[in-house]
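Running this now, will post back.
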Amino acid sequence: MRVARYARYGAPDAVLELLDEDSPIVAAGDVAIRVEAAPVHIADLKCITGEPNFRMFPLPAVPGFEGIGRVTRIGAGVADFSQGDRVFLPLACGAWREEVVATASDLMPAPEGDAVQLSLLPINPPTSYLMLNDYGDLEKGDWVIQNAANSSCGVYLIKLAQLRGIKTVNVVRRASLAPALKNEGADVVLVDGPDLAARVREATGGAAIKLAIDAVAGDATTRLGECLVDGGTILSYGMLSGEPCKLPPDMVFLRDIRLRGFYTVRQFTQHEPHEIAAMYRDLANLVADGTLRARIAGTFPLDQAVDACALAAKVGEDRPGKVIITMT
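Update: finished.
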């Protein structure tokens, strides 16, 4: 079995190795899964380089936060899965390897369809789904505003909002991104800037926007707050600017603008297991039938994981989509 592993922190081309290992033993209650595809996330790169707050796995470690594969071997006592069944890999299982062993009770069935697209389902689509469903008390006809709208989470959110009849204001850094987002169903696309709030009011007819979704932080948080109705909520789930969220005190105590942090795994704990399972079934069907699709910048075999990391590290138009490692 081949596996991509790093035993020390550093640049992927310096520390990431492709090794041959024995196939793992399948204990009672476990199954072995032949991995089909696994994404390369920015979080993977931060783990490999050992950035603060990302030294979460003991060394040596295998990257890969999510993926999809098929059951190949079954341990004693497992009745819910058979050989050949398709499943989503458990989160943070170290998916950049040809075979993963996991506890059967931790697995969710996966549908047939494009393995590359489905490999992205465990993290980003639930993030967008839960932000829309758990905050803002949104109803059909309401508006939501988000920045970094051309990200995978942003594109998923546009489509999920459209399916619910919720309208979106989508803030980006470059006007050239607007046509693609419009094609995804975005109602309004605006380039970020100091007069953002005035342009949002004009574009939405002065709509009372209750929810803003912030992946940028810094001054961008302030600009989103200026677009909200009094008592509105800003959900922070990223910091692409590298700066802390900035929210002026008068915006907080005079207008009651609220800043909330959003972390997908933590949000899962706010729901019963059957609710999470139902969400994944719905999202999987939407991915399988092509309703939800992520842009793909490139796919690489496992022995080109370093090249995959190099592409994933690029930003803007140099990486127009997600990067996927395929094992088949």
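The chain is about 30% helix and 25% strand. More later if anyone needs it.
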